[in-house]
Every structure is written in C-alpha cells, then in structure tokens.
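Lay summary

Proteins are chains of building blocks that fold into shapes. Our project writes down both the chain and a compact code for its shape. Here are two examples, one after the other.
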Amino acid sequence: MLAIRGIYDGKTFRVLPTEPLPEVQQEVPVAIIFLEDIPFESQKRQEQIEIAARMRTAREAMRPLGMSVKDLVEEGRER
C-alpha cells in the first residue's frame, strides 16, 4: 500500500511539492480516502436553514436602536 499526500481543489488532485513519488512500474487500482466528511447538498442546505433561523432569533432578541441607522450615522458625524 502506498500513501501519497496531495491537495484536492474540487476538480483535480495535485501531489504536495515535498512528497516523494515512487517510480511507476505498473498500473494499480487506487482508493482515495477523504479525512473529513464531505456533507451532501441536502445536509448543506439544512445547515444553512438552521444558521438563518439562529440569526433571525438573535436579531429578534436585540433591543430596538431607538432611531434610524441614517440618524445614528449623522449623530456620529456631529460628534
């Protein structure tokens, strides 16, 4: 078994520049193992929905500013 460290950019694999490569003697089947889980699209979408819900909840918990953002900016300029 050989292990060659590399980089996967979503399209292609590249060997790390410092990684020694063995001399090619024959073709062999290859198994590629990702060390971190790659979430499926449905999982990504569900995570985005949950994050948006947490953001809405946090926004609703904030006290009102008491004036518009424009007025706050103008007040800050006058100081």
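And here is the second example, written the same way.
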Amino acid sequence: MKKDDRFHKIIISDHVLFELYPETETIITFIIIRRAIGIFSIVNILKTFQKGICVSRSVQDKKGITTQNIDAEIDRIQKDFTQGVQAQTNYQLHWDALDLSRTTDKKEQLERIRKWGKLKVC
C-alpha cells in the first residue's frame, strides 16, 4: 500500500478442510484497499496450512474498481468463492469481515486489525 491508501475491508473465510488430506486446511482472505486516487483494489490471498504450518501462499489482485462498483464486486467474489468451494468439497464456507471503511487513520486501522486477530502471516 502507498502512504495515503487505506484498508476498506478485510474478509476471511473459515478453514476449508480436505477430506483426503485431514491435516491440511486452506484459508481465503480478501483485502479491499481504498486507494488515495479514488479507486479500489481487491487482493486475494489463498494460504494453505499443513499441521498448522503455512506451506503455500498465492496472491492475486484486481485493480481499478470504482466506488460505485465496490460493494457489488465484494459480494460477487464472496458468492463465487463460496459456490466454488461447496461444489468441489461439499463444504459450506463461512466468512468473517472487518469493516474499516469509516476508519481513516492508518494506525487506528492497524490496531483494529491486530485486535481482530484473524490474520495469520505466512
């Protein structure tokens, strides 16, 4: 993130478990960033853990989302991932979200993220 960019929202899935690999789980995280130039980016981080140790991480992003489209884009992405996981694993995915859209101070945002405690770095 650049100096004047701010977090808009963070959405994280519960653990996706794999029937064939009982010691493996994946967590899907979306970090929505409000760019200082007035558009949004969504960063998708897919982390896989085995026995609690992060063994892989994949990062993708989508840039240039307008203010008018951001809520619909967030809803669409969550819906698509939920349906995709359910279709592949028969597991109903659940999400937890931290809304930072009204918090403009970067230090306050970081403190709220820390207190939320849902993100694991890997």
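What can we say about the second shape? DSSP finds two helices and six strands in the chain.
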